[in-house]
């Protein structure tokens, strides 16, 4: 079972086939190049230029795959059939508050060493998904010679302006094959796992699927 959550709450709940009929998710807005109106006072303000650390989506994918392989190679994995999202999802999920700025959200992702995080409202209900790759997209970042105030304006934007919304989510008892189909269709790095009230209870990523594929026992998908 899949749901679609946005800033207005749950917009859809249904099967994979119904979700695919809706179409792909979108970002709520694209960060345009911010052109400051510079004044003498602005220049005198002396705001430090702060640029996120460089990184690429390809590098993150490679690192995630290698980490999944290394984790699966470790002994002591309990033997039981793996067929549902709840069998492979991460329970210790990192969340970003909808009231956060881009700078605050970036700090959260960096400190917790994750490439994406569900965005939740004050009640803990899913409203979107924020990815590090989107924050680093070249057409969203100011140029290298941009004024410090341009970077400051970018950092002070709300995550609501840059996150994916509405975003698909998945129930914990969903078949892993159907989850994989949605990941392929949307190109998203993973999906939030939610309960019936829209509360985020976990996250299932492409790395989680890779880890399950190479684990012993293997996925129980073909019976």
List keywords for this structure.
223 residues; 34% helix; single chain; alpha+beta; CBS-domain; 9 helices; three-stranded mixed beta sheet; three-stranded antiparallel beta sheet; globular
Description:
It is built from nine helices and eight strands. It has helices spanning 16-22, 40-45, 57-72, 85-88, 102-112, 132-135, 148-155, 176-186, 206-214, and strands at 2-6, 9-14, 96-97, 116-120, 126-131, 167-170, 190-194, 200-205. Strands 2-1-6 form a three-stranded antiparallel sheet. The longest helix has 16 residues, at 57-72. The radius of gyration is 19 Å and the shape is globular. Residues 29-54 and 72-77 have low confidence and may be disordered.
- State the CATH architecture: Roll
- Structural category is alpha+beta
Tell me the major beta sheet: 3 strands, antiparallel
The number of helical runs is 9
If strands are numbered along the chain, what order do they take across the biggest sheet? Answer: 2-1-6
- Identify the CATH class: Alpha Beta
For the secondary structure, the number of strands is 8
**CATH topology descriptor:** CBS-domain
Mean pLDDT: 77
Topology as a string of helices (H) and strands (E): EEHHHHEHEEHHEHEEH
Poorly predicted regions:
29-54, 72-77
Radius of gyration: 19 Å
The figure for the number of domains is 1
Name the shape in a single word: globular
Helix content: 25-40%
The named CATH superfamily: CBS-domain
Q: In percent, how much strand structure appears in the residues?
A: 15-25%
How far apart the termini lie comes to: 20 Å
